[in-house]
Amino acid sequence: MNPYGPVAIYLGVAMAAALLFSLVPGLLARSKPNPEKAEAYECGVEPTSSVSGRFPVRFYLIAMLFVIFDVEAASFYPWAVQMHALRVFGLVEMVVFVIVLAIGYAYVWKKGGFAWK
Amino acid sequence: MAAIHSAPLWLVVLVKSALLLLVVITTFAYAMLAERKVMAWMQLRPGPNRVGPWGLLQPAADALKMMFKEDLTPKTADPLIYKLAPFISLISAFGAYAIIPFSEPSPGDLWSIGNVNAGILFIFALTALGVYGISLGGWASGSKYPLLGSVRSTAQMISYELAMSMSVIGVLLLAGTTSLAGIVHAQHRIWFVIPQLIGFVIYLITAVAETNRAPFDLVEADAELVAGFHTEYSGLRFGLFFIAEYVNMLTVSCIATLLFLGGWNPLFGLTVVPGIVWFLLKVSFFLFFYIWLRATLPRFRYDRLMAFGWKVLLPAATANLVVTAIVVAYIG
């Protein structure tokens, strides 16, 4: 069997188990609907405004930075595994890459991209 | 054993998968009880002691109670995604066990389900999906506290995931493989916690943050966000998030054991004790460490948490990676 065959079977079983757990509330849980219960929670008072409000753009910035740096981390994996064969060539190549990244990192730091005010 | 060899492979894998899931869920139940007990002892309380001897039946009582609790959906929620979110969290939490080897691989693959080369990369890919469960769950609740909690925790998890994936590259450099069994074999002489001490410390910190546990449990900072992303969830749907959190804790403990503590390699050359016992002992050590942290440390402040991840852990992990690479290039 393909090495991923057992993995796929396991994931199938895990999905079935999770689905079972998701269906149990519908079967066993008692249901006494009440308009008050269907309100969104807001410390006991009626919701004062709609949810789709604004939230800080910082979070968006963090997501953008994550995409950049995570691609970098992912590109390190195959390189790291081959390092015993690449030796000094691999080292120089990676150091150049890290320096380029460090410049970008320093720029973001200086611009206040990591500060949370 | 003869019956196992004559049965078709897919059937064997199916039975093994079901058994493994059962073990994982039971471990979750008793990890939760152990946490309540150990924390109680640390705080000089008796802890749960009513249901069964020493409270041993408490997990079963909790599970039954959750199953019969009313399942509420706020009218402002997006019903489909609201119900899908805990499901996603749980699948991604369970997923990692597809390839975790619990002891020395044998011809019949007795101690693991699958043994794939991508190993650690595969696990990171699967467990990273858990953040979807949290961010979608908070968003789909259509309520303010869950939305804030989920946005916060998404930012926290992706920030710390970065430092986490950087911190294990040192191990890959030393082992020269991403296969989990291969990494354990590479630690035959010396556990990677010694040459990779900085990587290990960074991994431990990020692992706590990734699983949203104290002192990084900003997700459910109850003093400010009620219960964070799962404020609106009740009954078993809340329970699914809860299971996912503990299973993730178990997963990161298993990975820490495999990558840094030599997996099933024995301590002091005690090969009479089977590998699986060593593995479980090391994993229990990490679980205890988690509980200990929760009973000891106060919660971080959000701005400091983010600054710590980006300004301390990420550069430290990168520096560790460069130094390890230099050593491997010239000596290894």
Describe this entry's structure for a reader:
- The complex is a heterodimer of chains A (117) and B (332).
- Helix content of chain A is 66%, strand content 0%.
- Chain A is mainly α and 117 residues long.
- In chain A, helix 2 (58-81) packs antiparallel against helix 3.
- The model of chain A has no long low-confidence stretch (mean pLDDT 83).
- Chain B contains 14 helices and no strands.
- The model of chain B has no long low-confidence stretch (mean pLDDT 86).
- Chain B is 67% helix and 0% strand.
- Chain B has one domain (72-330).
- Chain B is globular, with a radius of gyration of 20 Å.
- At the A-B interface, helix 1, helix 2 and helix 3 of A face helix 2, helix 4, helix 7, helix 8 and helix 12 of B.
Q: Layout of helices and strands, plus pairs?
A:
The complex is a heterodimer of chains A (117) and B (332).
Chain A: H1 4-28, H2 58-81, H3 83-110
Helix pairs in contact in A: 2-3
Chain B: H1 2-6, H2 9-42, H3 58-68, H4 79-95, H5 119-128, H6 130-140, H7 144-167, H8 169-175, H9 180-186, H10 197-210, H11 222-225, H12 235-260, H13 275-296, H14 302-330
Helix pairs in contact in B: 2-12, 2-13, 3-12, 4-6, 4-12, 6-7, 7-10, 7-14, 8-9, 8-14, 10-12, 10-14, 12-13
The ordered string of helix (H) and strand (E) elements of chain A is HHH
Quaternary arrangement of the chains shown? heterodimer
Number of individual domains of chain B: 1
CA radius of gyration of chain B is 20 Å
Give a summary of the structure in a few sentences.
Helices cover about 65% and strands about 0% of the residues of chain A.
Characteristic key phrases:
heterodimer; A: 117 residues; Methane Monooxygenase Hydroxylase, Chain G, domain 1; 3 helices; B: 332 residues; 14 helices
